[in-house]
Design a protein that fits this description.
The protein is mostly helical. It folds into 2 domains: about 60 residues, no CATH class; about 220 residues, MetI-like fold, CATH 1.10.3720. The protein is about 70% helix and about 0% strand. The protein is built from 15 helices and no strands. The longest helix has about 30 residues. It is globular. The two termini are about 25 Å apart.
Length: about 300
């Protein structure tokens, strides 16, 4: 069926004119190019050789002679590879703890008549409106003895009030008859949540987990405040230190000892940027099928 006939098949829908379809296609093409070109330029710059990067001033759209010299120089120092492992560990542990705490809190708040659910819900809403400052947060972490500890990068971000409220709304949309049938069969609240509620909430949990994982992976400010040892820095703080401050991160010493010249700074910065987004790009396709259902939480169903 052609596009025009498909439009005409919908009652009250007039087919779009060819000029409007061409204009719409051009707008979509321009939007796609605006998204793809910066990313393609970063990847190309990281793969370009020193001569091409210097001749183009750091902007390479397509490498003439692809080379992995920038990645070898970055990974040879050990700083980036160690920071990558730190970020992966923080993201995995933090996401699991955040999902567990968020699911338990959201389920408790979604059950009518649960003890203290109204004051706790009010505190969650107030925490979204009144955010503590940097100094009180730092003093709290210091009093808890978490300075220079990986827990200082996980515990302050473990529960997000918005994610709790969204997941609570999803739990409340589950038919009450299923909960009642589980209770008739003798299931307690924990069994009901594990056997009934959570299996029906895979899409919501996948989206909330993705939100937490991206937040943990991209977080650098807490590490900048609480981490005194550079050996414990996560990937994003190393990225900020090198790209924004243009500081050496250890690759220069390793290459100088080997007698090799460093690639241009633009190529090194592009290589670090590519390494920092690879894990998110690899994980997203596995969660994409849940995104469509998950992002419709709270939407009006007709």
């Amino acid at each position: 069926m052609s596009t025009a006939s498909a439009y005409s098949a919908v009652p009250g829908k007039t087919p779009a004119s060819p000029a409007w379809r061409v204009l719409r296609s051009l707008i979509l093409l321009i939007c796609c190019l605006l998204v793809i070109l910066p990313f393609a330029s970063i990847v190309s710059t990281s793969l370009a050789d020193a001569e091409q990067v210097n001749s183009t001033g750091g902007f390479v759209l397509w490498p003439d002679r692809p080379s992995f010299a920038s990645y070898e120089a970055i990974l040879s120092g050990g700083v980036v590879s160690r920071a990558m492992m730190v970020s992966v560990g923080i993201t995995v542990v933090g996401t699991l703890l955040s999902l567990t705490a968020t699911a338990l809190l959201a389920y408790g708040l979604s059950r009518p008549g649960s003890y203290g659910h109204r004051p706790i819900l009010l505190l969650l809403v107030l925490s979204m409106l009144f955010v503590p400052g940097i100094i009180p947060s730092y003093l709290l972490i210091k009093e808890l003895g978490l300075i220079n500890s990986y827990w200082s990068l996980i515990l302050p971000m473990m529960i997000n009030a918005f994610n709790v409220i969204v997941l609570r709304s999803f739990f409340m949309s589950i038919p009450q008859e299923l909960i009642d049938s589980a209770r008739i069969d003798g299931a307690n609240e924990l069994t009901t949540m594990l056997r009934i509620v959570l299996p029906l909430s895979k899409a919501a949990l996948a989206v909330i987990g993705l939100f937490y994982a991206v937040a943990y992976w991209n977080s650098f400010f807490n590490a900048m405040l609480y981490m005194n040892e550079s050996a414990k820095w996560p990937m994003q703080l190393v990225l900020r230190t090198y790209v924004v401050n243009n500081a050496a991160i250890g690759a220069g010493e390793a290459n100088a000892a080997a007698g090799a010249a460093l690639p241009p700074s633009y190529a090194l910065q592009a290589a670090i940027l590519v390494l920092s987004i690879i894990p998110v790009v690899l994980v997203f396709p596995f969660l994409q099928r849940h995104m469509t259902k998950g992002v419709m939480l709270g939407a009006v169903k007709g």
